[in-house]
Structures are given as C-alpha cells and as structure tokens.
Amino acid sequence: MKNIIETIDIKDIKRDTPTINYADSDILVTDSMEDIMCGYEEIRLGMAVAIFCMEGRIRLEMNDDTCALQRNDIIICLPHHIIGGIMSSNNHSVKVFCFSHSFVDETLRGKREFGPVIDHIHRNPIHRLRHESKGRSAVNLFGKLITSKMNDNNDCCRKIILHHMFAAFFCQVLASFGTSADNSHRTVNGERKSATLVFKNFMKELAKDEGRHRSVSYYADRLCYSPKYVSYAVKLVSGRTAMSWINEHTIGQIKYQLKNSDKSIKEIAEIFDFPNISFFGKYVKRNIGVSPREYRNGQ
Fold first, then answer.
1. pLDDT tens, residue by residue, 118-163
2. CA distances for 248 relative to 76, 87, 91, 270, 298, angstroms
3. What fold, for 6-186?
4. Whole-structure pTM over 0.85, yes or no?
5. Topology adopted by domain 189-296
C-alpha cells in the first residue's frame, strides 16, 4: 500500500522543532529545510513556503518535478503541494519562510494584480534573483529589517509590526516573480485558453460524477481528448495533477456518506464501485490517514 502523505503546517513544525528562528500561529522562519519536513521524507504542505537559497545548491522534488536552486534563487511552494527528496551541497545556506493559509488569504485579499503571478508560480515556482539585482536588493532589505525586528524582544508590539512587515515582504517576493509572469503570460496565452476550457469541462464532469470514477481515462473519454492532454491541461491551469483533483473529490463524497448516511461501510463501498470493502478501506486510509470506521466514529 502506498504510504500516507502527512499534511504539515506551522503548528506541527513548532511542536517538533523548538530551535526555529521565529514562530507564531501564522508565520515561521527557520534556517533548515529539515525543520519543515518534521522527520518525514515526503509531506503535503498545509501552508505556503518560500525557500531562499543563500549559498550552495539545493534540490527537492515538488509534485513529482525536480527543482534545483542555486545561490540567490527563490522557490515558492504553495498549499497542497507535495515536497520531498531534499538534497543539498555541504556549503548550502537557506532561509525558509512559512505562511499560514489564512495569512496568505488575508495578505492577498483584494489585490487582483497578484492573480497572474500566483498562476505563474503554479507553473514556474523558481525565480532566479541572481539575474535581477533590483529585486534581489529589495528582498535582502526586507530580510534585514525583519531579522532586526525578530531580535527586538523588548518591543511589546513586535508581533503586530512583524505581521505587517511579513505581509509587505511576501508581496515583494511575489512581485519579484512579476516580470517573468508577464512574459510567460504573453507566450502561452493561446495555449492556455485551450487548456483552461479543458480544465473547466473536466471539473464539470468531475462534479457530475459524484466520485464513482477514479481514472483520468474516464474523464478524457467524456471530453474526447487523450488522457495525456487532459493531464497536461489540468496541471497547466491548476498546478495540480488530474488525479489529485479526482481523489480529492472522491474523498469528499466518501466523507459525506460516512458522516451523514446510515448505510453500512460495505454499502458505501458499493456506491463508489469499489471491488470490495478491503480495497475501499485501503483507499480511504491512504487519503485521509484513518480507516472508514475510525473516520465515521470521529477518531
């Protein structure tokens, strides 16, 4: 059976790593990639993470893609992304910033100009600041100001001030992706229109299916495209694989049945066309971490 991928957020890192630079309920700063992994080889992010490679080289896997960073490179890992396979050179130095889902939502609320940037980050999560002295200077300046305030333990308003500084810092980091986003938008605009239509129709078919079909091939047949193109279009537009959407939708339907119906677990497994109750139990546990009975009983 495939290993369960744990979802990690700020509270998990705070619990497992007492030596981090700074942490509150919405923001965490550390100098170690290992801190955010919480002892796991692979995790699903319950937060946004910005990783700055300050020296040396870093490599990690994100959503099955290999990402390589050098000095003055930034990678943005968005919530729900899966990361793992971290490797680094002996002389590497990093600064890792974690931002809660609510912090990101609050910071970006009403700022529609960041929409294309977030879209670009889904497809191109690495930005090479080493090629951009102006952007690098701005990010470094914010970093120095934040470090100074983090070390100011005598300021009773430190947390409030830091939150405003981190919000500005987060926007500056996104802005550093802005030029690349503009260029990318122009070059892939036509291709993206076609992919967007496929993605919208894929989501419509997914909603109508109620979780009974769990293969990309089924939806590709419904849309009259090849499974390969549907997978490509969904990943291009949403930054997620088609299977991740299918599994998320199916699990949502299964959770509803387990919590809100009087049907037995065997009957629910039959509703979703699982070959047997054992296969159903393994599928549920792989995706939510507990068995169907444990979920129904609130464990």
1. 777 877 889 887 666 666 777 778 878 888 888 887 777 888 998 9
2. 23, 29, 40, 19, 19
3. Jelly Rolls (2.60.120)
4. no
5. Arc Repressor Mutant, subunit A (1.10.10)
